[in-house]
Design goal:
Number of domains of chain A: 3
Radius of gyration of chain B: 17 Å
Structural class of chain A: mainly alpha
Number of helices of chain B: 4
Structural class of chain B: alpha+beta
Order of helices and strands of chain A: HHHHHHHHHHHHHHHH
CATH superfamily of chain B: Winged helix-like DNA-binding domain superfamily/Winged helix DNA-binding domain
Helix content of chain B: 40-55%
Oligomer: heterodimer
Number of domains of chain B: 1
Strand content of chain B: 5-15%
CATH class of chain B: Mainly Alpha
Chain lengths: ~450, ~120
């Protein structure tokens, strides 16, 4: 007896196993196959025959995969550096590459501004350079996005004002030993600036959750690309340094003060260009990374909670513990965002969403245990800028994870659609940026610039 | 009639875009329409249409959305974009040039006859 459903299932398994078609691609092909079978059986062909004819018409799986692979290689390499086919596209492409190169140089020049104010050597003024790093690397990206999206004057003005405000705050505020508020500014400025980048990336519709999700994906990929490019650059610099030592010339100052500054400040805009251009090469890595590390993190947190319960040892109220937990929560949030940006938004909830939910819940439990130990101590010893910032972050992150836990719980129990969970999360994102801006701009005066 | 592979590949984009210009459609319906309008003479391997569609989408010529049909089957519908219409016009002009050149060359006696 011919069982059509089981045959289709087998065919789907075969298509899946031979390569890298996405779930949506397979679903699209299956829908096609069923349409074809329906039409044939409607004409009086038996189910078995209809199935065989439809399969044959579909073409053999290997050839299909080659064709699909061509789509991705083309969208990656063809669009990247091999000139496009027609003259107009080629011209546009050349202009874009020129713009990106000029902007990368512009970043490097921004990075040399401290030299004009008597700080030419990076190693001697490391904190100054670190404090301004985001203000060197991100303006080129901002200009690139403004150019690419042809954004209105309002966006340009808002961008200029934001960068100017941060630049003045970081460089004109006084700073006294032990420089805690200054260090806090360094950490929080990039987070605050991400909100601006989100607005520029999404353009006029930046309040729309789907565009924000696109930005999350964009930011993640820019980060991965930047790391890859930076690694390549470091290898290049290392080799260059080693070669010049052979001829007894020390080029370290040149490397540190010029090549590293120009490379470091230009890398973000080049990465942004690559991500904008190709869309899809890393997309296949993101879900894999998320799938590997989500369960591992869940296990780690579970181990921590079980250990604390068994040994009866609460977390010691170490000053660094709060920061440690902030990092863990931020990583968990990052993983969830990563998963979100890689997940098919229309897919029905499955066991994987349960895994994400358990990760979020475990993080919340671990954090609650840690916090209960810390809050009391805080009341006794008073607030320092570091503790206040860490506590604020902890609350912002916890709020976010509670929201995610609620969202994923409702999703898994089938009460809301995935889109709603994404909407909530995207709506919450600015909270982190606003708090970061507050720490960067308001903490120094609040705590007397220490 | 067997049409040469390169010609099939080259004509796929303008044919698909032309069909979509008449209205949104999904893969299976597109294949059926191609078969119909060519009097069954253009036969594509069904599966090969999708990479073409995805390439067009990556290039911004079409946009896709999932829709659920009356019988509950989910289908991915494609819609032509303004960019796609411009591309179609461009490709059509190219085909016209090739076509008219072939036409003229096919009738050696008439060469230059309608050269006004």
């Amino acid at each position: 007896m011919f069982d059509l459903e089981s045959q289709i299932r087998k065919w789907r398994g075969h298509i899946n196993s031979t390569g890298s078609l996405g779930a949506q691609d397979v679903e699209e092909l299956e829908s096609h196959l069923r349409d074809s079978i329906d039409e044939l059986t409607g004409r009086g062909v038996s189910a078995e025959e209809a199935f065989l004819i439809s399969i044959r018409r579909m073409g053999d799986a290997e050839a299909l995969h080659d064709e699909y692979a061509k789509v991705s290689t083309e969208s990656v390499w063809r669009q990247l550096l091999v000139p496009a086919d027609d003259e107009q596209a080629r011209r546009r492409h050349r202009i874009e590459i020129a713009v990106v190169l000029v902007l990368a140089l512009f970043g490097g020049l921004l990075g040399k501004i401290p030299a004009l104010f008597g700080h030419p050597v990076v190693e001697e003024s490391a904190l100054l350079y670190a404090r301004n790093a985001a203000l060197f690397a991100l303006p080129p990206v901002a200009v690139y996005l403004i150019w690419k999206r042809a954004l209105s004057v309002r966006f340009i003005a808002a961008t200029a004002l934001t960068f100017a405000a941060f630049a003045m705050a970081v460089n004109l505020y006084p700073s006294y030993s032990p420089y805690h508020t200054e260090a806090l500014s360094v950490i929080h400025i990039p987070i605050a600036l991400l909100l601006l980048m989100m607005a520029l990336y999404a353009g006029p519709g930046w309040r729309r959750p789907s565009l924000r999700l696109d930005f999350v994906r964009f930011a993640g990929e820019v980060f991965i690309y930047s790391v890859l490019l930076a690694l390549g650059g470091m290898v290049l610099i290392g080799v260059a340094g080693a070669m010049f030592t052979l001829v007894d010339i020390d080029i370290t100052p040149l490397i540190v003060n010029w090549i590293a500054v120009f490379g470091g400040c230009g890398v973000a805009v080049v990465a942004a260009y690559l991500v904008e251009k190709k869309k899809g090469a890393i997309e296949t890595i993101a879900p894999v990374l998320a799938r590997i590390f989500t369960p591992l993190f869940a296990l780690l947190l579970l181990g921590l909670i079980v250990t604390m319960a068994l040994t009866g040892k609460g977390p010691s109220a170490d000053r660094d513990l709060l920061i440690m937990f902030d990092i863990v929560l931020a990583l968990v949030l990052g993983l969830v965002l990563y998963t979100m940006s890689a997940r098919d938004i229309e897919k029905a909830p499955d066991w994987w969403d349960g895994v994400v939910l358990s990760l979020v819940v475990l993080a919340l439990i671990a954090d609650a245990v840690a916090l209960s130990g810390i809050v009391g101590r805080l009341a006794t010893y008073g607030l320092s800028p570091n503790k206040a910032a860490a506590l604020g972050e902890n609350m912002a992150l916890m709020g976010n994870l509670v929201l995610l836990a609620a969202g994923y719980f409702r999703l898994v129990s089938g009460r809301v659609r995935y889109e709603t969970v994404v909407d909530w999360q995207m709506g919450y994102l600015p909270v982190h940026a606003v708090w970061a801006a507050f720490v960067a701009l308001a903490f120094p005066p609040l705590f007397g610039f220490v | 009639m067997d049409i040469q592979k390169d010609l099939v590949a080259a004509s796929a984009t303008p044919i698909v875009l032309s069909i979509l210009r008449h209205g949104d459609s999904y893969g299976y319906a597109i294949i059926r329409e191609v078969r119909e309008v060519s009097g069954e003479r253009i036969e594509w391997t069904d599966g090969m249409l999708y990479p073409v569609l995805h390439r067009l989408e990556a290039a911004g010529f079409v946009r896709s959305t999932w829709k659920t049909a009356v019988n509950g089957r989910r289908r991915k519908y494609y819609r032509i974009t303004r960019q796609g219409e411009a591309e179609l016009a461009r490709l059509r002009r190219q085909w016209d040039v090739v076509h008219s050149a072939l036409q003229r060359l096919a009738e050696p006696g008439d060469m230059g006859a309608d050269d006004v």
